[in-house]
Specification:
124 residues, mainly beta, four-stranded antiparallel sheet, 11 strands, seven-stranded mixed sheet
């Protein structure tokens, strides 16, 4: 059984930083696409960043230059380093995964596994 567990959320002032973690348990796929999504109250879920098993990354325009997605070996933990945070980054952040080696249509395609989410609150 695959389980994704996020951590690292919290409250921070604008301009600050947070690092989110996503630990994958029971995930033994050699090829995968891992993603971070977020959803603010009253808004649709949006993709933030993705990384595949070869380390290729993509970012939403709203976070380019501020957020960095990475992974460590063994590749069962992903991180989302968030710098220069803005109040509009406030949301519940979720990690997601699917067993394919390239993140096609990263923001709209189906992900097989989801974490429970971690809250990020940025105050002005």
């Amino acid at each position: 059984q695959v389980q994704l567990v996020e951590s690292g959320g919290g409250s921070v002032q604008a301009g600050g930083s947070l690092r989110l973690s996503c630990a994958a348990f029971g995930y033994t796929f050699s090829s995968y696409c891992m993603a971070w999504f977020r959803q603010a109250p009253g808004k649709e879920r949006e993709g933030v960043a993705v990384i595949d098993s070869d380390g290729r990354t993509r970012y939403a325009d709203s976070v380019k230059g501020r957020f960095t997605i990475s992974q460590v070996n063994p590749k069962n933990t992903q991180y989302l380093q968030m710098n220069s945070l803005k109040p509009e980054d406030t949301a519940m952040y979720y990690c997601a995964a699917k067993p394919v080696g390239y993140c096609y249509d990263p923001w709209t395609s189906k992900y097989n596994y989801w974490g429970q989410g971690t809250q990020v609150t940025v105050s002005s």
